[in-house]
Amino acid sequence: QVQFVESGGGFVQPGGSLRLSCAASGIIVRINSVGWYRQAPGEQRELVARISGGGSVTYADSVKGRFTISRDNAKNTVYLEMNSLKPEDTAVYYCNVAVGTPPTWGQGTQVTVSS
Questions:
Q1: Are 18 and 12 in contact (CB under 8 A)?
Q2: Residue 74 zone, left/alpha/beta (φ > 0; ψ -120 to 50; rest)
Q3: Which pLDDT value is given to residue 52?
Q4: Which residues fall within 8 angstroms of residue 20, CB to CB, at 6 or more apart?
Q5: Which of 13, 36, 40, 99 is deepest in the core (most CB within 10 A)?
Q6: Which residues contact 25 (CB under 8 A, 6 or more apart)?
């Protein structure tokens, strides 16, 4: 069973930072493409960052220059460092495979950016 468990979300003021963690099991992140997705209420889920099995990274235009995706192969964990957070970043953040259609979704972690 492939499973991703997200953590690290919370409440932060605009301009603040958060670091999200994604612990993977049943899949080796070192040799797979894994991404961070987010979904705000009433909106579609979108892919905001991806790291490939080869280590290349891509970002949605909305987060370029502010978010950084990385992985720790020894821990089989993917991270998302979020800086200069904006209210429009408020969403539930999920991690999952970033190739094909993810078969399942975890609980995600809530990120709220507000004064």
A1: yes
A2: alpha
A3: 97
A4: 6, 7, 8, 9, 36, 79, 80, 82, 93, 95, 109, 111
A5: 36
A6: 1, 2, 3, 5, 76
In angstroms, rounded to a whole number, what is the distance separating the alpha carbons of residues 34 and 95? 7
Residue type, position 89, single letter: D
H helices present in 11-63, as ranges: none
Q: Which pLDDT belongs to residue 24?
A: 97
Q: How many CB atoms lie within 10 A of CB 19?
A: 14
Give the Cα separation of 80 and 94 in Å (integer): 10
Distance in angstroms (rounded) separating the CA atoms of residues 57 and 90: 22
**Residue 102 and residue 34: Cα distance in Å, rounded?**
10
